[in-house]
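Most newcomers find our protein records easier to grasp once they have seen one. Sequence and backbone structure share a record, each on its own labelled line. To make this concrete, we reproduce a full record directly below:
***
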Amino acid sequence: MVYCLRCGAEVDPDSAFCGKCGMKISIPPRNKPPLILKLNNFI
C-alpha cells in the first residue's frame, strides 16, 4: 500500500491522487533505479 506524503492516508497504488487531501501521488517505476542512484553517478 502507498501512503500520501501530505496527510498520511492510504492510497490505492493505481490512483494518481490522494482521495483524502487531493495531493498528487508519484510512484517511482519498479523497473528503474531510484533517482538517488542516478544523481550519485554524476558526483
